[in-house]
Write a structure and sequence with these properties.
single chain, 326 residues, alpha/beta, Rossmann fold, Dihydrodipicolinate Reductase, domain 2, 12 helices, 22% strand, globular, binds NADP nicotinamide-adenine-dinucleotide phosphate
Length: 326
């Protein structure tokens, strides 16, 4: 059976999902796409090339003024893919979309951290009670498969600790400070010129984005019930070129590390030995998972980007398809 999906949010990631579905040949049919200005709906399958072109030309995918909620409520489909902007404090519009999808008995795949940070246990409970699947690999590390790896591939193997570089923007800034001896402000300016920083860089450089990922990992992989306020956080804005010089002299570099260990959650700049796997350069993400039986497993990958993030969403869609036996 062909699985029907909606794409709610048609920015970088939503468009990436449309592109990977066009590139690959999976029996998945997109029956609706919504952005903030309206939607396109076709029960026989939305023409994805056409939708992408319209978004580029007109700034909206819309051919009707139906809203995301109208689609989730009224268009028949099995999986809602939620890719609207993250709002961490309340879960934002994404939380409303996900709850509505569960109410209408639809499975959910999302890249949106906000709803998970705000209401992880409630959303999992609703999904469980309704026999629905809730998948969110794309929320942590973009293309880097950390959640599903820990929960499925390493099944039966208790995860004892995770530490990782989970924000590409911070890592780019720290790499430039380390390599070139430039100040934090200079490195941030370079990152802004390259377009790898949000208009407001606060969430990245103050460690907020990494906190969100640590909360999601703690709740999903470690079965904890924690929120944003449970993480001890220090960002990278106060790091000086002198700190890097001293670190270098001792054979270390400095990286923004998110970690979960012995029930403690922390995000802070940390000295990392230069030959340590977490000493990754540029915008890459890397995580080291300490397991009970398999020892340490280290994975890395591109932590953001339209197609890369969409690849994680696609794997979650196909996982649901497999589990449903379609
Ligand atoms: N970009 C990445 O590499 C990346 C990686 C991992 C996770 N994420 C997460 O994935 C999500 C999407 O990221 P993105 O980069 O694709 O964001 P984005 O480019 O800002 O796109 C967000 C999309 O959501 C739409 N939207 C906003 N409010 C809506 C509403 N009420 N109803 C329907 N659509 C609405 C926007 O509509 P308009 O187009 O009309 O403005 C836009 O199409 C975010 O939560 C982000 O944190 C992103």
């Amino acid at each position: 059976m062909t699985l029907r999906i909606s794409i709610i949010g048609f920015g970088a990631v939503g468009q990436g999902v449309a592109e990977v579905l066009m590139r690959t040949n999976h029996p998945v049919r997109v029956v609706a796409i919504a952005d903030s200005r309206g939607a396109v709906v076709d029960s026989c399958g939305v023409d994805l090339a056409d939708a992408l072109q319209r978004k580029r030309d007109a700034g909206t995918v819309a051919t009707t003024d139906m809203t995301a909620i109208d689609i989730i409520e009224g268009v028949d489909h099995e999986i809602m893919v939620e890719t609207t902007p993250t709002e961490m404090a309340t879960g934002g519009i994404g939380l409303i979309h996900i709850k509505k999808a569960f109410e209408k008995k639809r499975h959910v795949v999302t890249s949106n951290k906000g709803p998970l940070v705000a209401k992880y246990s409630e959303l999992c409970r609703i999904a469980r009670e309704n026999d629905l699947h809730f998948r969110f690999e794309a929320t942590v590390g973009g293309a880097m498969p950390i959640i599903n790896l820990s929960e499925e591939i390493l099944a039966g193997n208790r995860v004892l600790a995770i530490e990782g570089v989970l924000n590409g923007t911070c890592n780019y800034i720290l790499t430039r400070m380390d390599d070139e001896g430039v100040s934090y402000e200079q490195a941030l300016g370079e990152a802004q010129e390259l377009g790898i920083v949000e208009a407001d860089p606060t969430a990245d450089v103050e460690g907020i984005d990494t906190v969100a990922k640590i909360v999601i990992l703690a709740n999903s992989v470690f079965g904890m019930d924690v929120g944003y306020e449970d993480v001890d956080v220090t960002g990278i804005t106060k790091i000086t070129p002198e700190a890097f010089k001293l670190a270098k002299e001792g054979g270390y570099t400095i990286r923004l590390i998110g970690e979960i260990q012995d029930g403690t959650l922390k995000v802070a700049p940390k000295m990392v030995p230069r030959n340590h796997p977490l000493n990754i350069g540029g915008t890459f993400n890397i995580a080291s998972i300490q397991t009970e039986l398999a020892g340490r497993i280290t994975i890395g990958g591109i932590g953001a980007g339209s197609i890369e993030t969409a690849s994680a969403i696609l794997s979650d869609i196909l996982w649901i398809k497999r589990v449903l036996g379609d």
